[in-house]
Amino acid sequence: MYLIAGVSGKTGAAAATALLEKGHPVRVLVRSEEKGRPWREKGVEVAVASLDDVAGLTSALTGVNGAYLLVPPDLAAADFMGRGRRFLGAMSEALGTARVPHVVFLSSIGAQLAKGTGPVVILHEGEKRLSGLRDTRATFIRAAYFMENIGSLVSVARSQGVLPCLFDPNHRIAMIATADIGRTAAQALLEPPVHNRVIELEALRESSYADAAHILAKLLGRPVEAVRVPHEGVIPTLVQSGFSEHVAGLFQEMAHALDTGTMKFHNGDARHVRGPTTLESVLAKLV
Which CATH fold would you assign to the domain 2-147+174-203+264-275? Predict the structure, then answer.
C-alpha cells in the first residue's frame, strides 16, 4: 500500500494513477470527503486529513510501504516559510511515528542551496529535515520549472498577444511536465533506495518563454510575444494576481536566480532523469 498526497493537484493524481495502472494498492490523502469521492468511486482507499495534521497524517501513513508527500502551495500566505515549516514538522513527526520505510518528497531544482532561491528555500529545509529521520529512507525529486506554470498566462496570450515573463524570456531553462513528475514519483516508490537519494528531473530539452510564445502563436493562430516584466514591476504584478506581498518577493528572488543561472541542477551523486512530455503537448492541452 502506498499513500499519495496532492491528488487534488496534478503531480499526486499522476502518481496515484500510475501506481493503480500497475496494479498496486493506493491510499490517497485528501482534505475533505468531497475531494476523495472521485477516488473512492475508483475503489481507492481514502484518508481525510491535512498534511499539517499530525494525528490524521500519522493514521493515514500507518501500514504503508511508502508515501509521496509535498508542501502544498499557498501563494497568498502571509508567512510562506513559517507555514512550510509547520507542514514539514507535521510530516516528520508523522513519518517517524508511523515508521514509514520510504518517503518520496517533491523538491525542486536549486534545493541544494540554503538561500537565494525564493520559495525553494523551504524545500531545502524539507530535504534536510526528512534526511534526518531514523527509520525512513527518502527520495527527493528535484523537479525543474513546471511547464504548467505557463498555462495560467494563456488567457493573456490569447487576448493581448503577450506572454509575461519574470526573467529573461530568451533564457532557456530546465522544465518538466507535472505528469512526468507523478510518474517518476510512482516509479521511485516502487524502487526504494538503500540510502537517501536525489532524482534530478527535467524534460528532454530546455525551453524559454520565447519558445513557449512561439508555440502558443501557432496554437492560438495569432502573434504572441514573450515580454519581460521589469524588475520593479514583479511584486506589484504578482500581488495583483493574488499573491501576498511576501510570496511575491520570494518569487522575485527566484526569478533573479533563474536569470543568473543560480538555480540549476547540482549533479554530484544525484540520478538524472528526463521526462518524455514536451512543452508543445502540455500547452496544446492548456489552450
Answer: Rossmann fold (3.40.50)
